[in-house]
Amino acid sequence: MMKIYLIGFMGSGKSSVGKNLATSLGISFFDTDSYIEEYTEKAIPAIFADEGEEGFRHYESNALEQLSGIEAVVATGGGIIEKTRNKDIMDEDGIIVYLHTNFETISQRLQEDKNRPLWNQDLNKRKALYERRLPMYKQFSHYIVETDDKEVEDIIYEIEDVMKFS
């Protein structure tokens, strides 16, 4: 069974890479944010507004548990690393690939995005969040793939190469 978890900061390309990687490998694709929205019948900003970040993080852990044992590529939310329990779930179930993207690239990608509660803060808070999470992503991951200035296809080939030796 093959399970690949994609982790990284919001806007790092987890969903785009994940969909295409799953298609290339002929396995299912799940996005934990979409999975949570379907399960709760609420948009992510509404969950944050009603239940706070802690409530949302609880749903993330539940989503990982529900998806365990399924052959798939899973694009996780940027804050999946906020709970060590999530690392344990992913470690037991698959390979964790960190899509590393520079803050400047992420800023360009998310410039017009209004659906990310933790991005819709002032620049200093966004930058602090990015810098706080950076070592956590590295600690969680089995592999790191640099994504700046790369096409989705190139990132997929790199991940597939890593999978050959796993």
Automatic annotation (TrEMBL):
Any one Gene Ontology cellular component term annotated for this protein: cytosol
HAMAP family reported for this sequence: Shikimate_kinase
Native organism taxonomy: Bacteria, Bacillati, Bacillota, Bacilli, Bacillales
Main location: cytoplasm
UniProt cross-references to PANTHER family, sorted A to Z: SHIKIMATE KINASE (PTHR21087), SHIKIMATE KINASE 1, CHLOROPLASTIC (PTHR21087:SF16)
Compartments, as annotated in UniProt: Cytoplasm
Binding site for ATP: G11, S12, G13, K14, S15, S16, R116
GO BP annotations, alphabetical order: amino acid biosynthetic process; aromatic amino acid family biosynthetic process; chorismate biosynthetic process
A molecular-function term among this protein's GO annotations: shikimate kinase activity
Family: Belongs to the shikimate kinase family.
The protein's required cofactors: Mg(2+)
Protein name per Swiss-Prot or TrEMBL: Shikimate kinase
Function per UniProt: Catalyzes the specific phosphorylation of the 3-hydroxyl group of shikimic acid using ATP as a cosubstrate.
Pathway connected to this protein: Metabolic intermediate biosynthesis; chorismate biosynthesis; chorismate from D-erythrose 4-phosphate and phosphoenolpyruvate: step 5/7
Cofactor stoichiometry and binding remark: Binds 1 Mg(2+) ion per subunit.
Transmembrane segments: none
Reaction(s) this enzyme catalyzes, per UniProt: shikimate + ATP = 3-phosphoshikimate + ADP + H(+)
Pfam families: SKI (PF01202)
Enzyme Commission number(s) of this protein: 2.7.1.71
Gene transcribed to yield this protein: aroK
Binding site for Mg(2+): S15
Keywords for this protein: Amino-acid biosynthesis, Aromatic amino acid biosynthesis, ATP-binding, Cytoplasm, Kinase, Magnesium, Metal-binding, Nucleotide-binding, Transferase
Subunit text: Monomer.
Residue positions binding substrate: D33, R57, G78, R133
UniProt keyword annotation of tRNA processing present: no
